[in-house]
């Protein structure tokens, strides 16, 4: 019975139903008039969408167990350790840095706008460094390894990534004056939208969401972010507001002529949990071990993924530059071919 009770609690927790069940059992529906009650009522939306996504995939015979198996295993493992580290990281940063805040904000709509812009800056920094610093990529790569896009991917993270992300995002917000209650509300919005943008084609085939595609980060933009196509590498680091991607030149629309290929550039055994979860650490350790000299060993840790002490770099910047250059050459060659064919006629 103890095991069944534990499984029941985990299922209720995963589905976000705890607040609704407590409200039903106590009969206190006035809690919906409070912020915590409202957030609790919204929590089941994403898990429910995941269930609908799976049902639709099964119905239309597009369901593949491998698309969901590894994210589920990762979620189960992270459930026991990762969540406590993130909570501790947020609490630590608030306790240490709140006294150094530039000024104080309040829980109002205009400070919410300010706070969210600052939060997105913190998210951009964490996410950008997660792609451009090899050590941080080891923490983030687990999330990018799935070779399809669906809502279960939002649960696939290395257990330390949440703490690393929250240290950066919380520190930036607290130092910029975002007070804790406002910060927690922003975190809820960010977490909900951040999960939703992983929605797969079994729910939303066209992830552009109409006119919203020009104003916010949509599922289409995040599908681009998860792609390993050279054109799409290291783009769309924001979560909801695309302001910082546009400021720093990392914004990229989905190109109808470039089919998205999900995953990472290295070969991964998608059936092997250890390769998915620890593979990047293994290859980093291998590069550090083989690198000549202490400076090269340090560079492998902090330079972008694909950096090599030999100079034969395969970083995202190098790969994308080569792709764009070849594309430019193809385009410049096309008119010449057309002119030649015209003269032959």
From TrEMBL:
Source species, domain of life: Bacteria
Subcellular localization: Endomembrane system
Keywords carried by this UniProt record: Lipid metabolism, Membrane, Oxidoreductase, Transmembrane, Transmembrane helix
Keyword Oxidoreductase belongs to the record: yes
Organism: Chitinophaga oryziterrae
Protein name: Sterol desaturase family protein
MF (Gene Ontology): glyceryl-ether monooxygenase activity; iron ion binding
Domain Fatty acid hydroxylase: 113-250
Transmembrane segments: 31-52, 72-97, 109-129
């Amino acid at each position: 019975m103890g095991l069944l009770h534990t499984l029941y609690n985990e299922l209720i927790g995963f589905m976000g139903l705890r607040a609704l069940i407590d409200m039903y059992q106590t009969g206190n529906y006035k809690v919906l008039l409070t912020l915590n009650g409202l957030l609790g009522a919204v929590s089941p939306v994403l898990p429910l969408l995941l269930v609908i996504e799976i049902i639709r995939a099964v119905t239309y015979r597009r369901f593949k167990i491998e698309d969901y198996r590894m994210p589920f295993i990762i979620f189960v493992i992270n459930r026991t350790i990762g969540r406590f580290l993130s909570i501790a990281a947020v609490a630590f940063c608030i306790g240490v840095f709140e006294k150094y805040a530039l000024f104080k904000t309040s829980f109002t709509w205009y400070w919410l706008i300010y706070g969210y812009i600052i939060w997105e800056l913190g998210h951009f920094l964490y996410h950008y460094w997660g792609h451009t610093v090899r050590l941080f990529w080891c923490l983030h790569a687990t999330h990018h390894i799935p070779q399809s896009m669906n809502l279960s991917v939002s649960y696939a993270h290395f257990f330390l990534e949440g703490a690393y992300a929250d240290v950066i995002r919380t520190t930036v917000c607290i130092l910029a004056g975002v007070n804790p209650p406002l910060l927690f509300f922003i975190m809820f919005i960010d977490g909900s939208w951040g999960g939703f943008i992983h929605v797969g084609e079994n729910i939303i085939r066209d992830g552009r969401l109409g006119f919203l595609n020009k104003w916010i980060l949509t599922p289409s933009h995040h599908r681009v972010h998860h792609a390993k196509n050279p054109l799409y590498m290291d783009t769309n680091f924001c979560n909801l507001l695309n302001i910082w991607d546009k400021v720093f030149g990392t914004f990229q629309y989905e190109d109808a002529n470039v089919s998205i290929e999900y995953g990472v550039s290295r070969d991964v055994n998608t059936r092997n949990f250890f390769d998915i979860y620890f593979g990047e650490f293994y290859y980093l350790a291998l590069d550090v071990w083989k690198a000549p000299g202490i400076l090269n060993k340090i560079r492998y840790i902090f330079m972008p993924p694909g950096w090599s002490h030999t100079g034969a770099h395969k970083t995202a910047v190098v790969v994308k530059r080569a792709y764009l250059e070849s594309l430019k050459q193809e385009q410049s060659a096309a008119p010449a071919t057309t002119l030649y064919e015209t003269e032959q006629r």
